[in-house]
Structure to design on (281 residues):
């Protein structure tokens, strides 16, 4: 795709503004928290923050993996903060969040992949905010099933793990991850009894047939919720954007996803994995 080609009209978003947006930003800054909204340059940040919601990112803002689509920093993470669970819970209380979404960077260097901090964060949020429902978007644990159980056992209502792209593009887009390992992880999450969710990006060079095959693979694991959004290239150093997928194709993906057996499909150019997460309960 030409570097000069402008984004189509359906990808234009409003600039963040409003009192609610400023309050969320103040809370995040005051408690020294990270959000994937900021680290991932999410196009919906203005909409979500203006509505008083945010997706919190725990375990720091430096990832041990180097996925070519992602704008989160890659490198050697610093030590994690054992007080982070309390600070996240307190921020959620002050913001009055009814449905909290929590994600994290990959921490492959840790023995438990960060599982204990994950566990403690959900427990602390539930303790301080008993009426708040929680979705956790967890990383791939490289078949460390003990770490997985730590992450998914403390009481969250939805557990999400994103495939991100079709199997054929994994080596280029997620060189340190594995498609089949992620499918097995999703199956184990569902077998544990959790409401299970996954998300992908399109526009990276995948074909519709490859997306449909991915849908079949997810349905086979028992995954109930699927999100599909447009890939937006963060910088020229990231994976190249191949195409802007038309809204009609997103609508077709949603229709076919429902036909294949998903309970809920959120599909659109601006959709991200936590977009309208509160509706998916």
């Amino acid at each position: 795709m030409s570097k000069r080609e402008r984004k189509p009209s359906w990808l234009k978003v409003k600039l963040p503004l409003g009192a609610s947006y400023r309050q969320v930003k103040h809370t995040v800054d005051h408690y020294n928290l990270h959000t994937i909204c900021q680290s991932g340059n999410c196009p919906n940040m203005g909409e979500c923050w203006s509505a008083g919601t945010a997706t919190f990112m725990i375990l720091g803002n430096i990832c041990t993996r180097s996925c070519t689509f992602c704008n989160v920093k890659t490198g050697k993470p610093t030590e994690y903060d054992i007080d982070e669970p309390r600070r996240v819970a307190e921020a959620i209380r002050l913001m009055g969040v009814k449905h909290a979404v929590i994600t994290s960077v990959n921490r492959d260097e840790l023995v438990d992949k960060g599982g204990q901090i994950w566990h403690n964060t959900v427990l602390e949020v539930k303790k301080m905010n008993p009426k708040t429902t929680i979705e956790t978007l967890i990383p791939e644990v490289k078949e460390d099933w003990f770490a997985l159980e730590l992450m998914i056992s403390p009481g969250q209502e939805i557990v999400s793990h994103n495939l991100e792209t079709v199997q054929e593009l994994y080596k280029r887009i997620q060189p340190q991850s594995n498609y089949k390992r992620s499918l097995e992880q999703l199956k184990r999450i569902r077998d544990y009894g959790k409401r299970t969710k996954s998300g992908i990006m399109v526009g990276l060079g995948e074909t519709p047939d490859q997306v449909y095959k991915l849908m079949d693979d997810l349905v086979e694991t028992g995954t109930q919720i699927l999100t599909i959004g447009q890939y937006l290239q963060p910088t020229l150093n990231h994976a190249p954007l191949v195409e802007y997928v038309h809204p009609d194709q997103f609508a077709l993906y949603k229709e076919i996803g429902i036909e294949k057996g998903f309970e809920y499909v959120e599909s659109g150019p601006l959709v991200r994995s936590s977009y309208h997460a509160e509706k998916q309960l």
In short: The longest helix spans residues 115-128. The radius of gyration is 18 Å. The chain has a mean pLDDT of 87.
